[in-house]
Amino acid sequence: MSACRIIVWLVALVVAPHQSVYAQGFPFGPKQPERPDTVLVIHAGTLLQEAGKPPLREQTVVVRNERIERITEGFADPGTLDTGDAVVEVIDLRAQFVMPGLFDSHVHLSRATGSYSPGFAGVNSYAPAGAATVNAVIAARLNLAAGFTAVRDLGSDPQSVFAVRDAIDKGQIVGPTVIGSGASVSVTGGHGDESGSSDPDERAAAGVCDGADDCRTLVRHLEKTGSDLIKFKATGGFSSNTGLLQHMTADEMTAIVQTAHRRGIKATVHAYDADAILDAVEAGVDSVEHGYLVSDEGLRLMKKNGTVLVPTLTVAEPPSIAKRFLGKREPKSVTLRNESRAFERAYEKGVKIAFGTDCGIYPHGRNADELLRMVELGMTPEDALRSATVVAAELFGVDGLTGTVTPGSRADIIAVTGSPLDDISVMLDVPWVIKNGQVAKSNGAMQAPLDYSLVQEY
Ligand SMILES: [Zn+2]
Description:
eight-stranded mixed β-sheet; 14 helices; alpha/beta
């Protein structure tokens, strides 16, 4: 580009009226048409604004575009609301229990659960990126249809999960808000070392690091290439037959957590063994996934530091197809979990517990089974719902995602038939889902909006 043309460009930028050239769609895309605001007037028979607080009867929730604008008593007539020239839609949920959308803190969108989830393009995490992307699109839709408006993906094919995350954010496809780790970090021979290679580049791409320096480099690389948080595996795991003992050193964990925090992102640890959990919590990790063998000392430190437990209870149970072969025998995951009672002990001690399922290993769309299991093991329905809303929302740390139905929050709202406070099993069927102010599921049917304004003009 000649000096003369550069000057013309600079002058054009300076004199451009009112807004930047990018906002006008020039030079990188078509100009987006101006649209009127969209207002949803939701008449809620019962409204649970925040799990743990008493629900309110007969309320109106007003949503403007993607945010909750206000809440008024009674069923407000839209004509009495000052909606300007917005497009107004009344959603009649007078017979429903309306509440915040749910959060799942542990899923794997690009993983399918094979034989008992028909429709998936692949059966495991080794599916090629194309098939893994199709998996992630379908899984995202299944999670949203189950009432989960935000999920944390803790280990998926990075190309597929980041593409799906970004397409959902742009409104191109339907799904929950996704924050994703991309590849999860493991040491050589550990749970998740699937590289099968001695090539350093291939090993880094697979999330393998050894030693503090190597792990720091890997975390910086992951953050640079799109990871919203770091997931690392401090112990072996069931699905890889690597045992449950500690694999990662305290030194490596400290390097991982500190580097993540310096980049402004969180770190979560996959861990079973009690010593590994202690080392991770001392390193300042934000949450512990599974944590089945956590010691009382570990729980005390978690409580002191505000470290969150993501208990993943249901995934310990074998799928029904495996039960046929197991007969009365319990798999090790079930006996270990039931003997150690980490979830029950953490709940007694007041450790923060965020809802998480491991869907992808467990069937996508059946996330709410975990709520029933939590209540079965002694948690109150209020606390189980809190763990899947406000507690998880704090762990996600995404602006506007508060896990409550309050003015200013993003409009992620669901409705069920009957009160989950009386019977938690009503959460197994969520007929209404509003995500980011758009009706994604209406009266039991998923809506599939296709935004034609996104079609490029030539
Ligand atoms: Zn997992």
